[in-house]
Automatic annotation (TrEMBL):
The keyword Repeat does not apply. Signal peptide: none annotated. Its main location: membrane. The chain crosses the membrane at residues 12-33, 53-73, 80-102, 108-127, 139-168, 180-200, 212-233, 239-261. It comes from Bifidobacterium phasiani. It is a multi-pass membrane protein. This is Probable membrane transporter protein. It is found in: Cell membrane; Membrane.
Length: 271
């Protein structure tokens, strides 16, 4: 718990947390993600360890996802059955991710986050979803959706992200969803797993709930604006913008990981 108290003293002002929330909310509505790709590095930057930043980010995703779902559902861009199947798997996966989060080394978590970003960038560049397609459910598809949810669910608990960065391209590429339906369905599916993962992190004493709620409320207010922007962009333009943003984030993530990698850290210090 000493690590958590020390990290808490390094947190920036409420204004900074609100700014992070507004930025993550816009991206949540725009890309159908929980906003963890903004929240985690921002919290690390202002003083939290990767472990506590991931846990706090997951708490912030709860109100963010609710706001985004309402915005997408208003236009009919949510597949409720597919979201339920995904959510069932994600709840199971989030418990696995939370268990791993409390046990894996900080350096491993940082490099795993970088690898995850590379995967998402490539997926955005190689595939363009249709704006008019919909998910065609069957029994085999339902089973696959639940299994996909387990895999995706590990990410919120382990990396502090909502899993939307994987769910959105997967729903379009594997299940035929339009880009908007994939985003709305992803936001709905991540809600229960975010709650389950946050509860597990709270029991382990690695979540800063107050800071997560400040960020989450600000994000919830900004998410509808991102949803409006998503409808105005073409699917290809939306994917390109997401890839560019993640590429910038990847550069910073790799640099941060290098600075704590044994051997590399010493060489950087001698320069």
């Amino acid at each position: 718990m000493e690590e958590q108290r020390g990290a808490g003293r390094g947190i920036g002002s409420v204004a900074a947390l609100i700014a992070v929330g507004l930025a993550s909310g816009l991206l949540s509505g725009l890309f159908g993600i929980g906003g963890g790709t903004v929240i985690v590095p921002a919290l690390v930057l202002v003083g939290l360890s990767q472990r506590h930043a991931a846990a706090t980010s997951l708490a912030a995703i709860i109100p963010t996802s609710v706001s985004g779902v309402v915005s997408y559902a208003t236009d009919g861009d949510v597949d409720w059955v597919a979201a339920l199947l995904l959510a069932c798997g994600m709840v199971v996966g989030s418990q696995i991710g939370s268990w791993l989060l409390a046990r894996l080394p900080e350096l491993f978590l940082r490099w795993m986050y970088a690898v995850f970003l590379v995967f998402v960038i490539v997926s955005q560049l190689v595939f363009t979803p249709s704006r008019d397609a919909a998910i065609r459910l069957s029994v085999p598809m339902g089973v696959l959706l639940a299994l996909l949810g387990v895999v995706i669910g590990v990410l919120p608990g382990l990396l502090g992200i909502g899993g939307g960065a994987v769910a959105v391209p997967a729903l379009s590429l594997l299940f035929g969803a339009s880009d908007l339906i994939a985003r709305g369905t992803s936001l709905l599916a991540m809600f229960p797993s975010a709650i389950a993962g946050t509860a597990a992190n709270w029991r382990r004493g690695i979540v800063h709930l107050k800071h997560g709620l400040i960020i989450g409320v600000a994000a919830a207010l900004a998410a509808p604006l991102g949803t409006m922007a998503a409808g105005a962009l073409t699917p290809r333009m939306g994917a390109n913008l997401f890839a560019v943003y993640l590429a910038v984030l990847l550069v910073r993530c790799v640099w941060t990981a290098l600075t704590i990698t044994p051997g590399v850290r010493e060489r950087l210090a001698r320069r």
